[in-house]
Every structure is written in structure tokens, then in C-alpha cells.
Amino acid sequence: MKSNGIAQNKKTFFLPVLFFMLLLSETFFGQAAVSKLKITPLADDFYIYTTYKDLDGTVFPSNSMYVVSDKGVILIDTPWDESEFQPLLDSIYKRHNKPVIFCIATHFHDDRTAGFEYYKKKGIPTYSSKLTYDLCQKNGNVQAEHYFEKDTVFNIGNKKFETYYAGAGHTQDNIVIWFGKQKILYGGCLIKSTENESLGNIADADLNAWEGTMRKLIKKYPKPHYVIPGHFGWESNKAMQHTLNLLTKK
């Protein structure tokens, strides 16, 4: 009976320890997988930042970009998880000793615009197209502080870029951003990664217009060095043609 008592005590002690270890590992690895910020150099002064959001148990990556100018940092699209709004600013300042001085979104979905209000409160000017501005209002998303009504060229410090609206696709308002000197095309969610085997979220898409939009885009920017899609891998510069291929076999 005494030996059974000792065995019972060991079992009683072991179970809480095991439970604690499992809880700790779940917490640690869960946090490691969700709400993290990844910054990857693209070219001189150009960086892709990827944030992650848990959507019904699936961790989903979102690509955005920032550009370092001699006056400050240009932010193209915001994180969509509020836990990364400030860490992104902190990481940028730590790396480059420069603040973010400009933020622009490429369409109205919250994976592009979620940080607008936070960044406005930080004194960062926020921009979108007028169509994006109106769709944000219609859908209850945060609007930019400023908007532009046609394709626009921005000169910020020593960096120059243009916005271009080729037509509807992933959404009615999706624009792209082109850095002509570096031949970098930031496509956002209008362009699908070569890793994608489908068009993804098409809840607000115009599937009839998207193909024509892509053909127009390919004609305007036929030889980009880099093409940055809104989600998943961005290493291939063939993403525009891949998107067109997905559309023509839909």
C-alpha cells in the first residue's frame, strides 16, 4: 500500500507539470506564428515588410513595402493587424534612424488601410485615391486624410513614384505604384503571387474587368525588375503574367 501511495503522489505531481509544459509550449509557438513582423531588403532603400493575421485558425501573410528617402520613410499600405502598427514604426526607426513621413494605400480593404487612423494620430500624412476614399466610407473602413482623383506622381525627398489605375480587378479601386528609376512595380492585391493557384478573395472583385486590367498593366509596365503582389511570395517578376493566366482559365 505504501508503494502505491508513492506512485500516486508521483502521478499527481507529474500531471500538473505536464499540463503547464503543454500550455507554455502552445503559448510560445502560437505567438511565434501569429502577429509577427518580417522585414526583407528588396533593393537599395526598398524593403518588403510582411505581417501576419490569424483568419479562422489559418495564419495569412500580407506583403507591403516601405522606401527610405533622404527626407524620411514612405509607407506603402499598412499592416492589417493592429498589434504591428507601432512595432513597424519602431523597427523602421531602429534600422534607418528616420521616421515614416508618408503613407499611401492601394485599395480599401483593411489589409491595406487598417493602420490609417493610428498613423494619422502619429502625425503621418495618409493618402489614397478618391475611389478608395469613397469605398472606405461606404464599407466602414478608416479613410485616408488626403486623396487624389487621378493618376499622380509623388516626389518625396530623393524618391519619385507614380500611382496608376488600370481598371477594376481584385476590387473596383485597386491601384499600383511604380518606381520608374528602379523598375519596381508594387501591385498589391491586384496581382497574385506565382505561388497562388487561385484568385483568392473575390468578394469585391470584378471578374469581367480584371483580365482587361491586367493586359493594360502588362502593356504599360512590360519589363519590371520586381513585381510585388499583396500576399505570399514576391520573388518572381512573372506575377503579372501568372495573374493573367489564372484569369483566363477561371
TrEMBL record:
Localization annotation: Periplasm
What EC class is this?
A: hydrolase
Q: Which cofactor does it need?
A: Zn(2+)
The EC number(s) this enzyme carries:
3.5.2.6
* Matches recorded under SUPFAM superfamilies: Metallo-hydrolase/oxidoreductase
All residue ranges annotated as the Metallo-beta-lactamase domain in the record: 61-231
Query: Major place of localization?
Result: periplasm
An example of a Pfam family matching this protein is Lactamase_B
Its recorded reaction(s) are: a beta-lactam + H2O = a substituted beta-amino acid
Give the record's keywords alphabetically: Antibiotic resistance, Hydrolase, Metal-binding, Periplasm, Signal, Zinc
Assembly state and interactors?
Monomer.
Q: Which family does it belong to?
A: Belongs to the metallo-beta-lactamase superfamily. Class-B beta-lactamase family.
Q: What is this protein called?
A: beta-lactamase
Q: Species name for this entry?
A: Flavobacterium microcysteis
Gene designation: bla
